[in-house]
Amino acid sequence: MRGQLYQIVLIVLGVVVAALFGVFVYREMFPEYALYQDDYIALEEFRSTYTGEAPPIFKKGIKQIVLEDKNKGPEEIDRCISCHVALDFQHFSPTKIDYDINGNMKRDAKGYPLQVPNEEYVWEKLDRKIADLQDVAVNDRLESEGKSSEVLRRKSLAAEYEKLKTVKVGGYTYDTSKVLRMHPLMGKETRPFQFHPIEEYGCSSCHGGNGRGLTTDTAHGPVFDGMYEEEFMGHSPVFLEKDPANDPLFSKVFNHKPGHTLLFQTTPILIGSLIEAKCIQCHQPTSASLQNAYRGVTDPSNKIKEQFEESEKSYQNDLQHLATLLELRNSLKEKGFFATYTKLQQEEQNYAIPQIIRKKPSKKLTGKLQRLSEIPIFSLILYKNISAIICKILKQRDISSIKQNFSK
């Protein structure tokens, strides 16, 4: 009986493992980024039908940018270009730079290039082609001429082209024209990434999001159709340590109840009025630049001042210790070892004397002198050693300044 139970459990576990492995294989064979790459290849093939140019060579697969840390830390990895594969191509932009009849670039009063609608925009070309294939008058005429197969071909081709405009992932329908699109020109750029090479900056350093993500939700966060999406399904995030003050703001600001796939997406992509929020990391306003320049000038001077104060403090400590040794030398010479030791011990135990005086360097010698007092011969040795130390220090110091400090 027990053996049969074990067999049933093993069979069930085997089925579960096989199902999980099948899901893994399916996700690896049909990843989300492959859908956009297939659409890109189809669009380039469509474009070749009216330009006569061969489609560019394109290798499918994960594409990434590795940004090395200047401080030799871990690299930042951006895989955004696995889906956004048309960032550099002019025919994926709805606008283009305008030129005059002499081929000179037109600019506005601020020096920015003027842009006009791009007649080679591939998505507009696609819409016109779909409208042409679905033209009712043309199809009716072909039907009347007995060319039903041609009508079916036109309708089938129109349906295929229509599918290129959207991608369905996880219950959502995404607009492919927003993914397969040239990066807009910024400022005085005349081509994409002219001033900010994508190989050096990547995508997430400016736009936010998770650069390592290969799906829309993990890469963008709770963003859909240009808005931060609210998710009312799933469990409220529960953290191992109850610390509301330090819980991720993502769990409170963007979603009241984020879905399980978004719990660890703490850096959603910046959209709307926040799209330029990270520019200030490098492009600071004039006032901030002036403050940084002033700080750059004052910081070295402050550092030099601190070093000078430390040196002065160390010099004063040396003078104090030397004065203490001179005082101890005179006391040993005039009163002898045991009288000097007794005096130091009494002063150390006299709490009527201020604490700063009781903690003078000479008082620290009391413990050592107490151990030496048990051996009379050390009185002479100690006196000679102290004299030698003082003579050595006097050779390295300004004697007049020492006497002046000592007299004070």
Task: Describe this entry's structure for a reader.
- By secondary structure, this protein is mainly α.
- The chain is built from 16 helices and eight strands.
- The strands form four sheets. A two-stranded antiparallel ribbon has the order 1-2. Strands 3-4 form a two-stranded antiparallel ribbon. A two-stranded antiparallel ribbon has the order 5-6.
- A hairpin with an 8-residue loop joins strand 1 (65-67) and strand 2.
Largest sheet: 2 strands, antiparallel
Name the overall outline: elongated
- Placed side by side, the strands forming the largest sheet appear as 1-2
Helix content: 40-55%
Number of domains: 4
Strand coverage percent: 5-15%
The helix-strand sequence is HHEEEEHHHEEHHHHEEHHHHHHH
Could you tell me the radius of gyration in angstroms? 41 Å
Terminal CA distance: 102 Å
> How many H/I helices?
16
Please report the total strand number as a whole number.
8
Mean pLDDT: 77
Name some characteristics of this structure.
single chain; 408 residues; mainly alpha; 4 domains; two-stranded antiparallel ribbon; two-stranded antiparallel sheet; 51% helix; elongated; disordered C terminus
Topology:
Layout lengths: L1 H28 L2 H20 L13 E3 L8 E3 L16 E3 L17 E3 L4 H12 L2 H9 L3 H16 L2 E4 L2 E4 H4 L18 H4 L2 H4 L8 H5 L2 E2 L2 E2 L21 H4 L32 H50 L1 H13 L5 H4 L6 H8 L4 H20 L2 H9 L1
Antiparallel strand pairs: 1-2, 3-4, 5-6, 7-8
Helix pairs in contact: 3-5, 4-5, 11-12, 11-15, 12-14
Describe the structure concisely.
With 408 residues, the protein is mainly alpha-helical. It has helices spanning 2-29, 32-51, 122-133, 136-144, 148-163, 176-179, 198-201, 204-207, 216-220, 250-253, 286-335, 337-349, 355-358, 365-372, 377-396, 399-407, and strands at 65-67, 76-78, 95-97, 115-117, 166-169, 172-175, 223-224, 227-228.
